Amino acid sequence: MIRNIPWRWRVAFALAFALQVCHPLCAQKRRDPLNPLEIDQLRDAMLDPDERLKLYVQFSRDRMTKLVQMRSNPKTTDRALQTHDMLEDFLAVYDELNDNIEMYVGRKNDIRKPLKAIIEADTEFQSNLRALKDSANTNAEEAKQYEFTLTDALDTVDSSADDHRKTATEVEEYMKKKKKQK
Fold first, then answer.
1. What value does the CA radius of gyration of the chain take, rounded to a whole number of Å?
2. Are residues 48 and 35 in contact, defined by beta-carbon separation less than 8 angstroms?
3. What pLDDT, on a 0 to 100 scale, did the predictor assign at position 26?
4. Global pTM?
5. 77 three-state secondary structure
6. Where are the domains of the chain?
7. Which of 82, 5, 96 lies closest to 52, judged by CA?
8. Taking a C-beta distance cutoff of 8 angstroms, is the pair 80, 145 a contact?
9. 97-100: long-range contacts (C-beta < 8 A, 24 or more apart)?
10. Cα 145 to the chain's mean position, in Å?
11. Which residues of 15-47 are buried (b: 16+ CB within 10 A; e: fewer)?
12. H-type helices in the chain, by residue range?
């Protein structure tokens, strides 16, 4: 049956198959935005929601601070690419923060204290991201290279800030009910 298929079709099928197999191998792997020390700190804090969430806030803040410092350094080369990459790193860590909040809320952990720090950090992150978006010293060509990532970061932080406030209220109510039941 294969012999009845013209050789051109066989080559086309082989090429299509090879592309499907090789494509995932050729895809660029995204590096982990956390360094080994940070990963160890998170692993050590796995059973302590307060400490783990504080670490994620600290790591998010560290990335935002590095971004702001890089942007203000006149010696920075390839500012647009670095801005894009640093925004992606910030978002990756911030998304992990949100995933952990959901996990601890689902477990009915008392995370009122870290939620206060998270809400304060949200305001700081929003301010820094808006300042970057409104930056007058950025040319349009440069801004295009990270515009989507910046918009995504702003949208994520804005919606998460609202979610964090609602979650704080829900956790407060749950903890009051839990206290009354004792």
1. 23
2. no
3. 47
4. 0.81
5. coil
6. 36-181
7. 96
8. yes
9. 97/53, 97/56, 97/57, 97/60, 98/160, 98/163, 100/49, 100/52, 100/53, 100/56
10. 18
11. eeeeeeeeeeeeeeeeeebbeeebeebbeebee
12. 7-26, 36-44, 49-72, 79-106, 112-133, 140-144, 147-181
Residue 117 CB contacts under 8 Å (≥ 6 apart), including other chains: 53, 54, 57
Mean pLDDT calculated for residue range 70-87 = 93
Look at residue 112 and tell me whether its pLDDT is greater than 50. Answer: yes
CA dihedral 131, 30, 97, 117 (to 10 degrees): -40
pLDDT digits (tens, 9 = 90+) for 11-50: 556 666 666 655 544 445 567 899 999 999 999 999 999 9
- Among 27-36, 58-67, 119-128, the minimum mean pLDDT is found in 27-36
